[in-house]
Q: What sequence folds into this?
């Protein structure tokens, strides 16, 4: 078989194989969701998030009655595409929110200057994060008190950045963090700080869910959900907890172990042009 013939067969078969993997993964998710003890998991949907985070976040915001606001996401180049087209807050941009993205690598997007979405290219560590955050907020004309959703996913020093944010006055209604599902409750684990840490694929990165839960409680946040693949945990400020009385009290009924996949995609692949469209639309910031 010639290389051209092999390439032709591959091009024809790969989309079918990928579609099959998508369907198998979705059936797997459905089975897990149907047996979940946490009702928030039943709202899980993937549109532009890496997994089912979009649906969970939208349900949380629906419960606390926030239709439009501001988001702050650190680490937006994860996932399969690794270019800024797959993260937790794209869905908020499309709902008309304003926001800030920060990452140490470039995103594959052409964003307007001072539009609804501002991107700051900066490798974040404990030493430079506060200055970077304050500059980004000033540029975007957003106050710390006006940030409704914050998300941190940098595959390493996540806790130290999250801690710095809360100590510096960030008090979002919902805080999303990546946790290390390799360590189930009640295991306490927090990666020792390394200023220039870059994840190489091992299980030494990040924090256990129990560590995060204990930490966030000290800052008046409660764990309400983990996504179905055991990647992201959602914490809600205690002022909203009367809207979450149906959430399990036991952390083990919320925790999900790692069940990562690299295939599932709902609809066509995320396009940079689509995100750019929403970033440009209604460029003038709307007063809340």
A:
């Amino acid at each position: 078989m010639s290389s051209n013939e092999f390439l032709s067969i591959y091009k024809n078969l790969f989309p079918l194989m990928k579609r099959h993997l998508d369907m198998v993964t979705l059936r797997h998710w459905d089975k897990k969701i149907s047996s979940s003890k946490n009702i928030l998991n039943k709202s899980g949907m993937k549109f532009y998030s890496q997994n089912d985070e979009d649906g969970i976040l939208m349900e949380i915001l629906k419960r606390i009655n926030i239709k439009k606001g501001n988001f702050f996401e650190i680490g937006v180049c994860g996932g399969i595409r690794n270019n800024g087209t797959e993260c937790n807050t794209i869905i908020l941009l499309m709902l008309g929110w304003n926001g800030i993205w920060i990452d140490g690598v470039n995103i594959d997007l052409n964003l307007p200057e001072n539009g609804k979405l501002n991107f700051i290219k900066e490798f974040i560590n404990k030493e430079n994060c506060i200055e970077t955050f304050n500059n980004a907020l000033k540029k975007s004309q957003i106050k710390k008190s006006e940030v409704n959703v914050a998300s941190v996913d940098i595959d390493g020093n996540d806790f130290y950045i999250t801690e710095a944010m809360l100590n510096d006055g960030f008090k979002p209604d919902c805080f999303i963090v990546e946790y290390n599902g390799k360590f189930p409750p009640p295991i306490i684990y927090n990666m020792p700080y390394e200023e220039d840490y870059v994840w190489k694929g091992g299980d030494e990165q990040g924090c256990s869910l129990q560590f995060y839960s204990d930490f966030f409680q000290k800052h008046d946040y409660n764990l309400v959900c983990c996504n179905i693949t055991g990647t992201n945990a959602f914490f809600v400020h205690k002022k909203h907890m009367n809207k979450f009385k149906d959430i399990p009290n036991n952390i083990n009924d919320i925790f999900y172990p790692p069940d990562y996949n690299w295939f599932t995609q709902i609809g066509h692949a995320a396009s940079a042009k689509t995100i750019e469209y929403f970033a440009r639309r209604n460029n003038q910031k709307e007063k809340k």
